[in-house]
Automatic annotation (TrEMBL):
Source organism (scientific name): Rhynchospora pubera
Catalytic residues in the record: H116
Highest taxon above the source species: Eukaryota
Protein name (Swiss-Prot/TrEMBL): Pectin lyase-like superfamily protein
MF-aspect GO terms: lyase activity; polygalacturonase activity
Database matches in SMART domains: PbH1 (SM00710)
Keywords: Cell wall, Cell wall biogenesis/degradation, Glycosidase, Hydrolase, Lyase, Secreted
Biological-process GO terms, alphabetical: carbohydrate metabolic process; cell wall organization
Amino acid sequence: MGRDMQFKWRYTNHVEGSIVAPEVGKWNNHGAGKWLSFERIDGLVFTGSGSMDGSGSGLRLVISDEYSPNTDGIHLSESQNVRIQNSIIGTGDDCISISDGTSNVVIDGITCGPGHGISIGSLGEDQSTATVEKISVSNSYFLNTTNGARIKTWQENAVHISDVKYNNFWGTSSKDYAVTLNCSKTVACTDIHLTNINITTVASSVENTEAACINAYGEADGYLNTDMSCLHYSEIKD
């Protein structure tokens, strides 16, 4: 074979049954922090109708209750070309959290709840530069969550949020404020586009929900049940 030929391996894990972790008292300090570990793999795929049971009732893992702290369902960091789909996640923290160095992520068909929603961040702690890009969330449901889809940053100038699209959101909020765009006072959020936002509230008898904005620029169009007048208008780049 020619020396210029290159091969890319794809690692597929097909699960039909249940993978069950040892109970808390049986770890014996052997890999207690790594129930399943995959390192230095390009192209890891999980398929099948099976399940993974972390036996985490004593550790508040896997599906957990809404009062369990720091129990992200799935956390991505320094990851590229990831797809998460057709999953049910219940936790006391983010159903899915995405941090620095992550790009090209497709999240589709997720049922999240209880939990804090699907979150990017927090980014920019101690004025550190952070990059997260090309994240797509679609066809997902948030049930009894404190948030829906959100981006979290520290109030500093290390992170600029831009080119964010919220399309076709509908549902019910426990508060009058259905959209919050509180951006850094030193670095504005730009190119924020909202289309077809239909979120009602059970908190009062008002017909329309409201939005709260700080230093946010973009545009809102389509059907809007939420008052987006706080968003500073700016033409969105193609």
